[in-house]
Amino acid sequence: MRNIIMAWRNLWRKPWRTIITGGSVFFGVLLSAFMTSMQFGSYEAMIDNVVKFYSGYMQIFTEEYHENKTINNTFEMNDSIRRIVENEKEVTHFTPRLEYFALTSSDKITKGAMIIGVDPASENLVTNLEKWVDEGSYLSAGDDGVLVAIDLAKYLKIGIGDTLVLYGQGYHGVMAAGLYPVKGILKFPSPELNKQFVYMELNTCQEFFSAPNRLTSLVMMVEDHYHLTAAMRHLKMEIKSPYMVMSWSELQPELVSMIEADRAGGLVMKTILYMIITFGIFGTILMMISERKRELGVMIAIGMQRIRLGSVLFLETLMMGILGVLAGIVASIPLAYYFFINPIPLTGDAAKTMIDMGIEPYMYFSMHPDVFYVQAIIVFIITLIIALFPIYKSFTLRLTKALRA
């Protein structure tokens, strides 16, 4: 206890020395937390762009549909599946879909497109589809109109009120053909989505494909991807053959690979940052020991044991580390929160690259607790390791040189 009191008093005998040393720890936490928040935010934005625009966090479909995505491998919603999904506490919303390809035509122009039958209300809760209606209006229950993605509409040269011709193959080979008025134009941030999607009300879509009550998938959402693991674990135990459940990461392995590659690059950059932080903190500790060399020599000369001197110096460094870490967390949280609320807009080639990847052109930040406490722990461990140096120095200090310093 006496050592702790002595170490605390020593900190404030020269406040600027304490502030400089603690400041190196402070900026270490601040910089590493800021960088990690930006890194995590970019990953969350990538995942959100996949799950909130189209795929959802999880999907239920048949095993046959997973192997061969034809309309013949669809299923009918039953009470058992509905009960499992409704009882899963991690699932916030779910929506049924019927998806299949068909030819879209207007006048003499024809192009293949993905036809997606949705329940307008539940689909809007899952993917916020209504938000992307650029012209016209959103679908309603029993609607016979369609929503067409903007690039597809431009290619077909159609607009609000025009008639879209759909032609394809329905359930069990039945011919599917129909005329549908264009009710709205969708404009997604992703170029790929803008080129190929046509949305219809679910019952209208089932009628078009001659597939009453049939679904290709049940799309589910959770609060965020940190809740996904628990939801998947529970659903995989409940969902039995011939049905199966898959997460967005299983449905989008190329995105997972891209995130992992970026994470590896980020790890290299963070390692360099930790090295800079380490040398920064070590430099301030070295300076502190050097300028106190005479003081330390006098303390040993008047009878202070070297082991006690080392423990006091260790406690001083430890306290400066704690103060710096706490200050770094306190400063980094509001800084990251500001950019979390106000993401940095990107321009030029960087914006174009992100748009081509289907991501909104902003630099996003994350407020997940891991961003802050993990970085604080890492920087504090670095400080603890560096705090061993004053102990070493107290045992190797040559008294005659120290007294002449």
Structure description:
The chain is of the alpha+beta class and 405 residues long. The chain has 2 domains: 2-51 and 256-403, no CATH class; 70-215, Cathepsin D, subunit A, domain 1 (Beta Barrel). The protein contains 17 helices and 14 strands. The protein has helices at residues 2-13, 15-55, 63-67, 79-87, 120-127, 150-156, 191-196, 202-208, 228-238, 248-251, 253-291, 293-301, 306-341, 348-356, 369-386, 388-396, 399-403; strands spanning 58-62, 75-76, 91-106, 109-118, 133-136, 146-149, 163-169, 175-186, 197-201, 214-215, 217-222, 243-247, 344-345, 362-363. A 6-stranded mixed β-barrel has the order 3-4-9-6-8-7, surrounded by 4 helices. Strands 2-10 form a two-stranded antiparallel ribbon. Strand 3 (91-106) and strand 4 (109-118) form a beta hairpin. The radius of gyration is 31 Å and the shape is elongated. The two termini are 30 Å apart. The model has no long low-confidence stretch (mean pLDDT 86).
Keywords:
405 residues, alpha+beta, 2 domains, 6-stranded mixed beta barrel, two-stranded antiparallel sheet, 14 strands
**Overall radius of gyration:** 31 Å
* Overall 3D form: elongated
Q: Estimate the mean pLDDT confidence.
A: 86
Helical amount: 55-70%
Describe the sheet with the most strands: 6 strands, mixed, barrel
**Which strand-content bin applies to the residues?**
15-25%
> Strands of the biggest beta sheet: in what spatial order?
3-4-9-6-8-7
Structural category is alpha+beta
Low-confidence stretches: none
DSSP strand tally: 14
> How far apart are the first and last residues' alpha carbons, in Å?
30 Å
- How many structural domains does the protein architecture include? 2
Q: How many H/I helical runs? A: 17
